[in-house]
Design a protein that fits this description.
Blueprint: E1 13-19, H1 23-35, E2 39-44, H2 51-58, E3 61-64, H3 71-84, E4 89-92, H4 101-112, E5 118-122, H5 134-151, E6 163-166, H6 167-172, H7 182-192, E7 197-201, H8 208-214, H9 217-232
Parallel strand pairs: 1-2, 1-4, 2-3, 5-7
Antiparallel strand pairs: 4-6, 5-6
Helix pairs in contact: 1-2, 5-7, 5-9
The structure holds guanosine-5'-diphosphate and magnesium ion.
The site of guanosine-5'-diphosphate (GDP) has 17 residues, from strand 1 and helix 3.
Length: 233
Amino acid sequence: MRPQGATFDPADAWFVIPAYNEGPMIAQVAGEVLASGSRVVVVDDHSTDDTGDRALAAGAIVVRHPVNLGQGAALQTGIDLALRRGATLIVTFDADGQHRLADAVRLAQAVHEDRADIACGSRFLGVEARDIPASRRLALRAAAIFTRLTTGVPVTDAHNGLRAMNRHAAMTIRLTHNRMAHASELVGQIRERKLRSLELPVEILYTEYSLRKGQRISNSLNILADLFMGWLR
Ligand SMILES: Nc1nc2c(ncn2[C@@H]2O[C@H](COP(=O)(O)OP(=O)(O)O)[C@@H](O)[C@H]2O)c(=O)[nH]1
Ligand SMILES: [Mg+2]
């Protein structure tokens, strides 16, 4: 373990931001992270809007998928790029403004102090997330139980995109499930590949923008359907 006092330097962190049609938010989200001194890789998952251009204008490194491949594939693309550029600490962060930079910094600090190879955010530890739609809460709870049963890792929020990991974890984790099921795949690999993990409480902001985009019940059902397909595979 590093000495407790050693504070993590934001310049050491590479934020990987998967983004699909997040034109209205991406510049603000990437801009805030860049202003803190960290590097930003936005993976534009073949958006039909101007997400990629706006991320580029904000100062991010932008990679574009030639077709829409899903969040898991976008994460893997971004992680690979950061590793190639020599990243030692990688944070995965959503493009829609639902994650708080302060929470990302706490996760990064835990990894920096070598308390874990990968620190995962949970919206169900400590303070219960406010304003979370009931169907979403139900799907997320069910997905966490399913993930606990199939992987043996005691997660409370498998589908939380906010994580920080060291280079070893980033090189060890290989996401092959392109869409939502990548989340439980990641937890499975933590167990199989003997990574040291921990969960820390984070707040997910249910903004009007994110609710408009993700409130649909089909979104929640998709998580469950994809998990089941992943399990069959
Ligand atoms: N829904 C969706 N999100 C994607 C895709 N590719 C990348 N993402 C990004 O993955 C992150 C999480 O997606 P979101 O729909 O907000 O999921 P939720 O907040 O977990 O319900 C966002 O930053 C999206 O822009 C995709 O094909 N579909
Ligand atoms: Mg979201």
